Amino acid sequence: MLDRPGATDLLALAIETLQERLLPHLKGEDKLTGLLIARALTVAQADGSDDHARQHSIADIARLLGTPPAADLPAAKKQLAAAIRAHRFVPGTPEAVRLRDHLLSDTAARLRLVNLKYMAARQRRAESSV
Amino acid sequence: MSILQHRTALIDFIARQSGAKVISLEIEGKLGGGAIQENWALTLELGGGALDGEHRLVLRTDAATGIAESRSRTQEFALIKAAHDAGMTVPEPLWMDDSGTVVGKPFTILRRLSGVAEPRLVLGQIGALADSGEVEEPGEVLVRHLGQEIARLHRVVPERAPASLGFLTPAGDDLIRQRVAEYRHWLDRLPEAQPVLEWALNWIEERAPSVERITLCHRDFRLGNIMIEDGALSGILDFEFAGWSDPDEDLGWFCARCWRFGAYDKEAGGLGSKEAFFAGYAEVSGRRPDPQRVRFWEIVAALRWALIALDQGERCFAGGERKIELALTSLRAIECEYDLLLETEAYDTPPQPSRHKMQKENAAEGEG
Question: Deepest of A9, B85, B190, B206, by most Cβ within 10 A of its Cβ?
Fold first, then answer.
């Protein structure tokens, strides 16, 4: 509903204010709590600006299942999870390969939002083992 | 309700249990850690009886909300006692109350260990010890010791178990199938579907190795539950998930990537090598762990930790325990999902010679 400042502007400003004006003055447990709040806000900010990825994931799941796109991402994931549990993707088939590719790209996209460092550490390790 | 309000009832309880006069009881306050239970530090002075003198103790009781998989405090007491009797280094279990009438809920009293359990502090101690040069490879020394310790717990087998462990669910050849069913049920209780975890459960079901032995297992053996003082072990904590299982589950949990606290190259708990950990284990058990079986259980560990992490989020959003730490812990499940997808692929792919090794071999063939 709001245009300017909208949710994105306000979140960005809240994070900036927390990091620059509040966190430097906090100590001990309060500092830790402040850092956790900053992290929660940063994740929310990244997720909020990622609607394209959400739509992409819904479309990808619909392609995997051969069904019309679900109304939202939780509904799409519910359909996919049920199909996996029903063993609809037979190991060794192209469908199973496409499923794993989807799961990996979707998980990587979510991990990028919440912990880019973790992903980078894994990738560095994979490269160093080549 | 705080333990502080029940001080008099607690003194009466201790006097009855110890058969001694309580000269003083200081409730020092709540200890950190323990998302599922509360730990209170006590200093007790007894007069007379077998325990005459001063004692540093910890009183453990349930937090406001628990998680689906955890055990009651009195069951945990029986488990710690079994571990203590098997020679494992654990806090000595002293007394328990399962009536809930003394402090308003069941509790146990154990001897308090010295040292630190917080993983970053433990890793800091080991790093400082390595830098000082006082101990050569202190991480390797510690994981070897931890291998010996967990092997001691695995001496407890169902056929010779004390009657006090009768509450444990029996486990058999179908252990992994049972676990898969239990984890699917767990998924069904979560508000959102988890396709990666469903996929991983199918993978686990398809590749489940045969279960060769069943022993008492800690089922949360990792940094965070290991108390260290000056770089050496002072005791193993938190038996709330313990039960009958394949002993390789403990080894896989300890070595799983999610429990290395950023020290990913140190495959044994972020502290040292699997070689040293397995060597310590073999010294006590006489059995050298099979690395591939342990890797299988590392994958099961990633799945189980993902479920526990999601449960922590539910404690915050549905359980009434509105803590930002719990909400952020639930995001750790995504790291586990990523691990599951990559580790299963690595498990399924036969090891390939490295590019460097292939180049060397090609050069050698060329020379021939």
Answer: B190
